[in-house]
Amino acid sequence: MSEGQRFQLGTVGALGLSVVSSVSIVICNKALISTLGFTFATTLTSWHLLVTFCSLHVVRWMKLFEHKPFDPRAVMGFGILNGTSIGLLNLSLGFNSVGFYQMTKLAIIPCTVLLETIFFRKIFSRNVQLSLTILLVGVGIATVTDLQLNFLGSILSLFAVLTTCIAQIMTNTIQKKFKVSSTQLLYQSCPYQAITLFITGPFLDGFLTNQNVFAFNYTPQVLAFIVLSCLISVSVNFSTFLVIGKTSPVTYQVLGHLKTCLVLAFGYVLLHDPFSWRNLLGILVAIVGMVLYSYYCTVESQQKAADEAAAQLSQAKESESDPLINIESEGGILTEGAPRGTGWNSAKDLQA
């Protein structure tokens, strides 16, 4: 199996793991929050991150992955920013209607595209832009209902979108800049994320729910669902970093909207949640957008790989056509077959 085939197989596996684990944790948390009344989302997320860090620490102790320390300031800044974005998203949901919160989530994709275009000079083709537009329209039709606006909620949503976009872009760039794996980055940033949410979580949850997380009645059933949610979160957090590292922040957001459609469909089929033709139409339009996005990204990725291979072959032919001459050097004589200077650098990162 070639390196490109292994990369594609790993990417498909990461996407599949992300979908399955995310849908599973949504179902578990829905039972925990809606049925059992445990509405402390931010505090629960801090426990998720703490369990994830402990699990990775055990995996590191078993020497299943190599710990690779790098710039501690980058790790700390990234961890605090990621934790802050989670808290702001929860605040946005608390201060806005569900419809406006869904619009906030939809705004993450165009904001990410804009930031990557401005600061990283990344080019998104018209086909990719069209597929993303179709996707956003479909998800909007399926999920956005009421749009009740208020000043404070709008400001919180704006900061939530910006911090989320920057955090996800940093997830991708840090892995490539410092040549660390998703596991290594998650392991080092988890403590900062967990501490940020562990400190602010009880206050945020208390402010939004008027309840005290420490005074809640923790029945065996509630504890069982909390433990299950924390265990699933290990896979969710790992797959999130893995997907963004292997693909891009935009692709991860597209995958997130696929999860939303799957959760809606699951709720209708198994839980008999209210469903309308508007929901069905939106899901179908969103799926068309996702298929087109996947198709265009695959075609452009293959074209990019072919262009790079052709460029390398052209450089190789030009190198072979140069006249072979003997050059006297300090250490001896360079003859035919000897190294003749530095060559080209092959592209190691294949963008999905």
Please, could you describe this protein's structure?
- With about 350 residues, the chain is mainly α.
- The chain has helices at about 5-35, 40-60, 70-95, 100-105, 110-120, 125-145, 150-175, 180-210, 220-245, 250-270, 275-320, and strands at about 325-330, 330-335.
- The longest helix has about 45 residues, at about 275-320.
- The radius of gyration is 24 Å and the shape is globular.
- The two termini are about 20 Å apart.
What are the main properties of this structure?
352 residues, mainly alpha, two-stranded antiparallel ribbon, 11 helices, 2 strands, 2% strand, globular
Task: Offer a quick outline of the entry.
This protein is mostly helical and 352 residues long. It has eleven helices and two strands, in the order αααααααααααββ. The protein starts with a helix and ends in an 18-residue tail after the last strand.
